[in-house]
Design brief:
Length: 461
């Protein structure tokens, strides 16, 4: 604390001394609080080198400018084998690369379910034996194939994918179709109802959506997301408005393209408030990919979790992953589930936070606290804190409750290290035992070491 006598009555300036500050408040002593936190431990030297890099300012302006200028359009729905070249026995998964030996329960459950869906195994036990042996099996990260997947994020050749194209830069990204909530493959469930639903999605839902899009033309996802934010969504764990807007856009084309299946398809989408999530994830992926490979840039272009590791990728560091242990979300649980049932954080859906949505836009969605816990003030505080670690405010994604201020977008590794603030993520919680499904939802912070490792790499470059 120091005494300020520059103007009028003396005031006490408190810096990081919360307890002493509160004591002064009780004594009615005038004070000015300065919000300051020390850098992340051990980062001072690397931080100094990165901040002194003459390329940094221009590189970051270029990278974040590309991200914010992206115009994601939903252009098609196609099978994974056609657009990703996946062959029998090849699977993609969420997060940084991982082997079967290190895979968590929900990741193993989703892979086993994908084996059953593809007809490569007759029972879950047989599927696990084949996956453990590795014979004829290929696993790779979704992000390595311009793809993102929620939770376990498992993609197999027969699954149908949403195709999103960036009308500004020309990139393309993919995401699977959303199954709904509860016992679903992405949460590691693989029971008969899960496989039956996946088959219906492959035989009916995917082809119907593809035919409808051919009729109605590309859908402007940037505009839909912007509207949904102003209707109470944050586009990660709350997608009710976005899904409704999507249905309004595509429903007539569904009826025209597939009158025999229109009712069941619309009923399925209408009963799943999260249906838009996957389209929003692909939109975020194609936007973030536009900012990749700018030398000297400290912009985060991917955050992803595989249920074991939390990893990030940085614009100026190519395709390298920087990882740390995934944490267990703190939140609300379904039914009789509790923290002991929870798996560590999992999924590619943090691509939403990477581009200024999800946890970064919680101030736009006060109702989200009923799903992830906390108070409305916590949602506002989460968003406002994220302005400290981001490079820009999104020009299209705006928050009415903050005076239509743009969402904080463009995470800067250097700002994370300098402020000590880590990105906030809101997420679903998968059961740690394969086959369980969803057990809750909550908030989680990434491991600091992922960001400090990336900072070190930037400093060494």
């Amino acid at each position: 604390m120091t005494l300020s006598m520059l103007y009028g009555e003396p005031r006490v300036i408190t810096v990081g001394a919360q307890v002493l500050g509160e004591a002064l408040d009780l004594q009615a002593v005038p004070r000015c609080e300065v919000d300051w936190r020390p850098p992340l431990p051990g980062t001072a030297a690397a931080l100094a080198r990165v901040l002194a890099d003459p390329r940094r300012e221009s590189a970051n302006a270029t990278a974040v400018g590309r991200m914010l200028a992206a115009r994601p359009m939903l252009t098609g729905v196609r099978p994974a084998h056609a657009v990703l070249g996946l062959r029998a026995g090849e699977f993609l998964h969420a997060g940084p690369p991982i082997t079967w030996e290190r895979a968590s329960g929900p990741m193993r459950g989703a892979l086993a379910g994908a084996m059953l869906f593809e007809g490569l195994a007759g029972t879950p036990e047989e599927a696990e034996r084949r996956l453990a042996s590795g014979a004829g099996i290929g696993l790779d990260s979704c992000h390595h194939h311009r793809t993102v997947g929620p939770m376990a994020g498992v993609v197999s050749p027969s699954m149908w994918m949403l195709e999103v194209t960036d009308a500004e830069h020309g990139g393309t990204a993919y995401c699977s179709l959303n199954e709904g909530l509860g016992k679903v493959l992405r949460y590691g469930a693989y029971g008969p109802e899960v496989i039956e639903r996946l088959r219906w999605m492959g035989e009916v839902l995917g082809p119907v959506l593809a035919a409808a899009l051919e009729r109605c033309g590309p859908l402007d996802l940037r505009t839909l997301i912007a509207q949904a934010l102003q209707m109470g969504d944050e586009l990660h764990n709350r997608n009710r408005a976005a899904t409704s807007l999507l249905v309004r856009e595509i429903a007539p084309a569904i009826v025209e393209a597939a009158p025999d299946h229109a009712a069941e398809v619309l009923r399925f989408i209408n009963g799943n408030d999260h249906f838009f999530l996957n389209a929003g994830m692909a939109a975020a992926k194609v936007s973030a990919d536009a900012a990749r490979d700018v030398p000297g840039s400290s912009l985060v272009v991917a955050m992803a979790r595989n249920g074991t590791d939390f990893g990030i990728q940085v614009s100026g560091l190519g395709d390298r992953w920087f990882t740390g242990p995934a944490g267990v979300p703190d939140g609300l649980y379904l039914g009789g589930y509790g923290p002991d049932d929870a798996n560590a954080d999992i999924g590619d859906s943090t691509i939403t936070e990477t581009t200024g949505l999800g946890g970064f836009a919680m101030a736009a969605a006060p109702a989200i606290v009923r799903f992830v816990g906390g108070e409305v003030s916590d949602a506002v505080a989460a968003t406002t804190t994220m302005y400290e670690i981001t490079m820009a405010e999104h020009p299209a994604y705006q928050i009415p409750g903050l005076g239509f201020r743009g969402t904080p977008a463009g995470i800067d590794v250097a700002l994370v290290a300098r402020t000590g603030s880590l990105p906030v993520v809101n997420t679903g919680i998968a059961g740690r035992i394969a086959g369980t499904g969803q057990v809750g939802a909550g908030l989680v912070r990434p491991p600091a070491e992922a960001f400090t490792a990336a900072l070190d790499a930037l400093a060494g470059g």
